[in-house]
Specification:
Helices cover 38% and strands 20% of the residues. The protein has 12 helices and 18 strands. Helix 3 packs antiparallel against helix 4. It is elongated and about 105 Å long.
Length: 424
């Protein structure tokens, strides 16, 4: 969430920053409710002071049966009733204000390009060249079915549309990718692996910025009030919720594998073929807890760690900087990685690397001490896919396909494939 104190002291700056997102936000209502809340709180405090003074005066009176004593006692009963009513008003105003405050997205970094929607995103750079194929490349759904490694029919029989079954070498390839990516991030990039619950409490989703805004896109067990994770970002954010970390503990780098569960709401006829979009998918997630003055450099390193996976797989990709109108709710700055899929003939997003500044740490109340004995401060959080499947699977299948319909396993993955070098 945004700092309420900062909003009070810099309303024009906040107003301008949020306007860059081209989103309707209740900032003016928050400012009005906050002013009313503070005025009402002052009234309550004034009445409490009045009651305290009268109480002192009454305690010094020797004649407890005097008319003056009875008058003061009657007045204090009235003041007490007023205080109760005003305290109820204070609580209601605070609840309404905070509910609206939860709807405000993060403020974009100043150097994020302006734009209304994804059309304003900017390609920062590209890496590699799409492979030249002397034949018409097939899309992954044709390759997967012909090789018997993707079963769409039985996936739909089990769970409905947007589900599928990976078989044999297809299942092994996905498992190999997950294990290999975790190994690269731990051994080469310095992350500490964590294995997380795949269901979390509601406050975890609030802390990560998923609730209340995205409740309709999440899966929930109502009876136990547990939510299936939409991304490992959610449980990792909350590992240190309500904690004050020591100066020596920061920075913290974590990496985790989880399945991800989301209600994919798409236009009819859009992306209906293949495994590009589904209600369940696997992802390896990178996450950082860092000091505020380092988060800009940490974002660039996080992005390079994600790019390294694509470089090692020798998959052409491009880096796209998101404009203000396309930023995620919690993000102050984001870069997407898009990999080329020749069979689909399109760029597919496989990673989104974001600096969330102190937005999530405020919601989850995660602080650190800059030095021993110093006053706690909110740290900065960053997250990035490292990478998301199944789109990496799509890119490998379509980029490494052969004219006979077989798929060559990338060299870097062969040690993880138990001797399989070609899927035939």
């Amino acid at each position: 969430m945004l700092s309420l104190q900062y909003i009070r002291e810099h309303p024009a700056e906040v107003r301008d920053a949020l306007a860059r997102r081209h989103a309707e936000v209740p900032l003016e209502d928050i400012l009005e409710l906050d002013a009313h809340w503070r005025m009402t709180l002052q009234t309550a405090e004034s009445l409490r002071s009045q009651r305290n003074e009268a109480s002192k005066q009454m305690s010094g009176m020797k004649d407890r049966a005097s008319a003056e004593f009875e008058r003061l006692r009657a007045e204090m009963r009235d003041v007490g009733d007023q205080i109760k009513e005003i305290e109820a008003d204070v609580s209601e105003l605070e609840t309404r204000r905070n509910s609206l405050l939860d709807q405000l997205p993060n403020i974009p970094n100043p150097d994020v390009p302006d734009g209304e929607d994804e059309g304003g995103n900017q390609v920062s750079r590209t890496w590699g060249e799409p492979r030249s194929m002397p034949f018409q490349p097939k899309p992954h759904w044709e390759l997967g079915e012909s090789l018997g490694i993707i079963d769409f029919e039985r996936g739909q029989k089990l769970s409905g549309s947007r589900f599928y079954v990976l078989r044999s070498a297809g299942a092994k390839l996905q498992r190999a990718l997950i294990t290999w990516m975790l190994d690269v991030h731990v051994q080469n990039h310095g992350y500490t692996e964590v294995y997380l619950p795949f269901m979390v409490r509601g406050e975890c989703l609030y802390g990560a910025g998923q609730l209340p805004k995205f409740a309709d896109n999440l899966y929930r067990d109502i009876e136990e009030d547990l939510w299936m994770v939409p991304t490992a970002e959610v449980p990792i954010t909350n590992l240190y919720r309500d904690e004050i970390l020591s100066p020596d503990a920061v920075p913290i780098y974590h990496v985790a594998y989880t399945p991800c569960f989301r209600r994919e709401k798409m236009s009819a006829g859009k992306d209906v073929r293949g495994i590009k979009r589904g209600h369940q998918f696997d992802k390896v997630e990178m996450y950082k807890f860092v000091k505020p003055d380092t988060s800009g450099a940490e974002l660039q390193k996080l992005l390079d760690d994600a790019e390294d996976i694509l470089r090692l797989l020798d998959l052409p990709y491009r880096v796209v900087e998101l404009c203000t109108g396309d930023l995620g709710f919690s993000a102050a700055q984001t870069y997407d990685l898009e990999v080329w899929a020749p069979g689909c003939d399109e760029w597919l997003e496989v990673s989104s690397c974001s600096n969330c500044s102190d937005f999530q740490s405020r919601r989850a109340n995660i602080r650190y001490r800059p030095e021993h004995g110093a006053r706690p401060e909110y740290l900065h959080t960053l997250n990035g896919s490292g990478l998301a499947l199944p789109r990496v699977m799509i890119a490998i299948m379509e980029s490494y396909q052969q004219e006979d319909g077989s798929i060559i396993i990338p060299d870097i993955l062969k040690p993880y494939m138990a001797g399989i070098e070609v899927i035939r």
